[in-house]
Amino acid sequence: MVMIPRYPDSAELTLALRPLLHPLFQTLGTGISEFTFANLYLFRATHKYRVSMLAGDLLLITGMDGNEPFFMLPFGVPDAPILAQLFATYRTMKCVSASQVEVLVSLGYEITEDRDNFDYLYSRQDLAELPGSKFHKKRNLIKAFINNYSYEGRPLLETHKADVLEILEKWRANREEPGDYAAAKEALEKAEELQLCGGIYYVEGKPVAYSLGEELAGGTSFAIHFEKAVDEYKGLWQFINQAFASILPAQYETVNREQDLGSEGLRKAKLSYKPIAFVEKFKATVKG
């Protein structure tokens, strides 16, 4: 098994590290969507992720947001001298969990809420059943889709790779910005190696949408990492949201649909599905 170097040495995230890191991330109960091997691996180029091991076998993840360095500590906070060194080098600690806030405050660090990166948590049962008046508009759009189109949903298997890539390419063609296109494409190409699972949807025999994700929070939640659809079918987005939730096993109490990244439109859309909670994340910096 490939080993992770000791800090201050570091290594790039490669698939060879999955046997070591994936089981570790599966033990995390925080439910932070960034903290899965697949998510970190797929966005390794975007954030220039590197990994090290600190004393006490604490995993350190470092990265860049543009020209701004940062670090993350999924499994705990190291001793004060090491932590001070990390802040001196990388300036900002990201994806600080609610349970880490108290420790960092006691050590004198400044904490700010990272609302744009809060994960949206939904009741799996609510998404599957859309009960009550609060989901009236969603049910009407789904009903219109079902009445207007001949559709089919299937588990997303390796044999569907060409079809899901076709959906992704059509999704990209209708947008000015690439968004998460590169990560989404690699996720489809390496879904089997990363053990991602999902569903694919057809209208009149044509591939039109898919959802792809993995379990989170100790197996109690399912994170939707990628959801793509073509744009010409009214009610399609609402349909796949409900259809995928309805086939998830009951062990998943919640569905994590990740963050809105500060996008007003995305925030409005995510709030319209009535989240039952957020996975709160914070940033920590040196005071002053």
Strand content: 25-35%
How many structural domains are formed by the residues? 2
Largest sheet: spatial strand order: 1-2-3-4-5-14-6
* Uncertain parts: none
Silhouette: globular
> Which fold does the CATH topology of the largest domain refer to?
Aminopeptidase
Task: Find the count of extended strands (DSSP E, 2+ residues).
Answer: 14
CATH superfamily of the largest domain: Gcn5-related N-acetyltransferase (GNAT)
Terminal CA distance: 43 Å
In the CATH hierarchy, what is the class of the largest domain? Answer: Alpha Beta
Could you describe the largest sheet, including whether it forms a barrel? 7 strands, mixed
- SSE-based structural type: alpha+beta
**C-alpha Rg, in Å?**
20 Å
Secondary-structure map:
Elements: E1 11-12, H1 18-26, H2 37-42, H3 44-47, E2 50-54, E3 58-65, E4 68-72, H4 80-90, E5 92-96, H5 98-106, E6 109-113, E7 119-123, H6 124-129, H7 136-148, E8 151-155, H8 161-173, H9 181-189, H10 191-194, E9 197-203, E10 206-216, E11 221-229, H11 236-247, E12 254-256, H12 264-271, E13 277-279, E14 282-286
Parallel strand pairs: 4-5, 11-12
Antiparallel strand pairs: 1-2, 2-3, 3-4, 5-14, 6-14, 7-12, 7-13, 8-9, 9-10, 10-11
Helix pairs in contact: 8-9
